[in-house]
Amino acid sequence: MTEKPVKITLYRWAGAWGPFKVSIPCGECSLTVDVIEDTLKHELAGIPVDLEIREWLSEWWRPLRFGGWHAPIVMVEKKVVSQGQALNRGLLTEVVIDAHTKTTPAQGNVVFGKETCPHCKRAKYHLDQAGIQFDYHDVVKEPKSLYEMLARVKPIIGPKTPVTVPQIWMDGNYVGGAEHLSKLLNTSVDANPERGQSSLSPGHLKST
Length: 208
Hints:
Elements: E1 6-12, E2 16-17, E3 20-21, H1 27-41, E4 49-55, H2 61-64, E5 73-76, E6 79-83, H3 89-103, E7 110-113, H4 118-129, E8 135-138, H5 143-157, E9 167-170, E10 173-176, H6 178-185
Helix pairs in contact: 3-5, 4-6
């Protein structure tokens, strides 16, 4: 399956408009380019992206239609996500992954969890016992995995329902948590007592 690339457009302080020409480079624009390129190599590695860098002064009316008026302007799929300052790479990662999941369905067997979660450990154990291969992603240690999990599960459970871990997909189909997996595999997994409150909230995240 060919994945559709996520379109990122950067309008930097450059170009010309009538007699006006930009001769002094914009430091925050240059920094934003560096942030984008480095984020694509690390947090967003493996996600197809189409990056376009344009000159704001020569085309100022284009981003203005979408609310962008202060370079550097960063747009993802024609939506302004940052302007007037150097780009926050965490914000770029979240927005790009959200856009990517909208056009790319989940595939295979995937478990999103965290190291301190006993239900995540039980889910992995029962999958191992059943001889089922799966990909495990730690949402505390891997920002990319956290953003992907949230982007995939929120449309299913609703924006107001707290997200707990683990969150499990089998053959690309959403299963739910450890107790849902136990029913699917006909094994015994205790219900998650945190269900109904977010196990990703600051009060629940513990350092190891």
